[in-house]
Recover the amino acids of this structure.
């Protein structure tokens, strides 16, 4: 499939797909004309990239994680044990950022509650 079809099937912009290739996350075949050609497994790969980006991971970490993600029945498993500690640390960082955001929301709620209604 060409890049436009991959974009339609994944809901990801063509620009983002090109960026993923620049970041070494996607490896399309190149046709003689220079057009990129993607395979069906690339749809799943792009969905995984999107999920990892949504989780707050950067493309360098995603580049390390993607080769270690394997489908096992209905769930994903990590096949590279050396990444486990990194992922646990990344999860902790996300939880810390969530706590900071909650504190900011609480502060804003207090200010709003103390402000006269407009």
């Amino acid at each position: 499939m060409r890049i436009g079809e991959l974009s339609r099937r994944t809901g990801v912009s063509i620009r983002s797909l090109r960026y993923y290739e620049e970041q070494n996350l996607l490896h399309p075949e190149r046709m003689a004309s220079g057009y990129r050609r993607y395979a069906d497994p690339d749809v799943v790969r792009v969905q995984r990239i999107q999920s990892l980006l949504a989780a707050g991971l950067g493309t360098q970490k995603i580049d390390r994680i993607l080769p270690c993600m394997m489908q096992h029945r209905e769930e994903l498993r990590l096949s590279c044990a050396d990444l486990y500690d990194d992922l646990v640390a990344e999860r902790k960082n996300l939880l810390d950022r969530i706590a900071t955001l909650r504190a900011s929301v609480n502060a804003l709620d207090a200010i709003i509650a103390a402000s006269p209604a407009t």
